[in-house]
Amino acid sequence: MPKERLTRLNGTASKPREVVIPFPVKKKPKERIETNASAQPLAGLAPALENLNVPAAENVNSARPTSTEPVWKMGRVLLRRETAHRGGKTVVVVYDFATHLPASIIEKVAKKLRAACSTGGTVKDRTIEVQGDQVAKVRAALEAEGFIVGGVK
After folding, report:
1. What is the pTM of this model?
2. CA end-to-end span of the chain, whole Å?
3. Position 44 in a domain
């Protein structure tokens, strides 16, 4: 190699680098965890918990009391029938939801209303629009959800 082609690094001429070809490395086989569908899922847990000094729970088999009260106090909603800007088609609009209800709850209620009425619908600006003139079905479904319903009869 001619000297004029060598580059200088830190005042010394650099040497061409050697190309290292890696040799194949044997991988360790993966450790498999034995699974047995017929074995009890928590069978080996008791010996591990004995050393923790945790007091035993009282009344282990008693179920928690379940309340039939809804998590959210749904409040009062109003219904109105609209045909404006829809080519003569009628929709039932559910509006005036309580301000403490998040949009996710309103979405879930809308889904249940659409299923109860077997129609389409949408949620726009905290109001639910259900396609068709089905005030009785919408009112019944909302009352089943825990709402106090006012408006169109």
Report:
1. 0.54
2. 99
3. no
